[in-house]
Amino acid sequence: MFRRLQTAGCTLLLGLALLVPANADGPGKQFKRVADAPTFTSPDGKVRLEQYVRDMGDDGLLFQFWTFDPSHKHAVLLNAGETTDQAGYQAGFRFSPDSQWLVRMQKIGSGTHTLYLYKRNGDRFAPATAKALGDAAWDFFFTQPAATGVRHDPDDPYSLDHMRVGLIKGLEDNYAWLGQHWPDNRYLVLGLSFDIQGEETPFPWVEDWRCLYDLTTGTFSVPESFAEHNQNARKTPDPARK
Fold first, then answer.
1. Tell me, what's the pLDDT at 130?
2. What's the maximum distance between 2 C-alpha atoms anywhere in the chain?
3. Which distant-in-sequence residues (6+ apart) come within 8 Å of 102 by Cβ?
4. For this UniProt entry, which residues form the secretion signal (predicted)?
5. Confidence at residue 113, expressed as pLDDT on a 0 to 100 scale
6. pLDDT tens across 127-156, in order?
């Protein structure tokens, strides 16, 4: 089961990143452009995102995610201070249609994924939440009825097996396929999953349990329209299993 240590030092670094995004000429010589990683460009064409990697030997790979202006002169590092535990894999990215928000979809271990959210300020993006958006989504989940009976360690954000938070498709057209009439560029729809692999005493788990994140208020909710889906997303063990 994957574990990720959260230290006071990492918290301090994230807090500083919220205030001042790393701004430099670009990746140093120790980081190489990831050849097979796509370039992500904001809908307004003013921000381009590239991925770079450094081989850290026994510690694995460390990825950096840089944004540039169209001239490729002004570089801003999105994930300053992160370790190989947090950025040991390539990431996927989605811009909001108005180019003001950026979601990073990050693998952090075997079967474990989280999300990071960034907000635009001028020509740069900076972290928009005090912790990973995926971690905040799990905090919200554990306050909901769907978490009843789920055994987890409140001090370990990854105490369950294969914890995954994903961005549900549809951000580019405001989730039209869900049949909603939400304000443009207002919400993110997240899907949460984990399993009970290896548990001696089974308990409920979820597969694609959904919630809504409000970009304006910074809060989570579960719309009534998600009720049926979430009821089916909550799984219970076979009573015959011992």
1. 95
2. 63
3. 42, 49, 78, 93, 94, 95, 96, 117, 118, 119, 120, 125
4. 1-24
5. 98
6. 999 999 999 999 999 999 999 999 999 988
